[in-house]
Amino acid sequence: MRMFVPRASILAILAVTAAACSSRRTVVITPKPPRYVEIEVEVYDPKTNGVWQGVGVRPVEAYHEWSRRTVPAGDPDLWLFTDETGRVLFDSAFLGDADLGFLEDQAGLAIIESDRDLDEAFVLLEIDALGFDRVFVDVPISWHQPSVLVSVPFEPTPPHILEDDGGAGDDGEPRRFAPRTITPRPAKSVAAEAAVSGVDA
């Protein structure tokens, strides 16, 4: 059986179909804002689990995924010393001033991008004090974990080694190892409207 359809209805159906065919769905992907980089270091005695005050900590160099380069600190004497809690904090302003190759915001604060090819870095720290074995610690940084607390065991040098070579390890070389724990700290994002400038590495 044939069904009669009014001409006006046919035109309306054709108009809707044409509009549907010509429309395109637009997906807007908003990049996640960069985050500020901060490293807090806790130096403790593994035998007593107490903390050490007055221990020197400095950033030596940093490897950056964004530049594929390892950048030494602009000043080799950027020492901070642990307080009564056994901690020092390298905030984003300090890390920016240290010329370690981090990207920086307009205020010169060290940041890290969210792009999967730009979101990782490794910072090498040196920890030293008179009468202790000097150690180096690699600290991983990422956009997902840009602010960390690093706990590092630190022991006095045995007297016979101290007399022989001035405080290095058994083989006369500084010790280098991974920190015992790396604990995320609250991340701070850069405001979306803030401009980001590249830093030559």
Characterization of this structure:
With 201 residues, the chain is α+β, with helices and mostly antiparallel strands. The protein has a single domain (35-197), classed as Immunoglobulin-like, CATH 2.60.40. The chain has helices spanning 7-22, 92-97, 159-165; strands at 35-36, 38-44, 56-64, 69-72, 80-81, 87-90, 103-105, 110-112, 120-128, 135-142, 147-153, 175-177, 181-184, 196-197. A hairpin with a 4-residue loop joins β7 and β8. The chain is elongated.
Observed structural traits:
single chain, 201 residues, alpha+beta, Immunoglobulin-like, 6-stranded mixed sheet, 4-stranded antiparallel sheet, disordered N terminus, disordered C terminus
